[in-house]
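Trying the structure run again after the queue cleared.
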Amino acid sequence: QNRREPIPSMPGVERLSIDLATEAVAEAARWGIPVVALFPNIARDLRTPDGAYALRPDTLICRAVRAIK
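Done. Tokens:
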């Protein structure tokens, strides 16, 4: 919670915890921005050739989408 992590290869861009991402999306909506794209940072040990982690309902992206909705 309440975490910002700079992305070294992308100056000015940060990874946000779900609570901060929710606030950022609300701010975007207030500015009339109708769509945002979420790019989760998935731990390497959870990545598999078949992408099995992506099918779980408790993934980072699923939790973020639920919070934002």
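The CA atoms of residues 6 and 14 lie 4 Å apart. Worth checking whether this holds up in the mutant runs.
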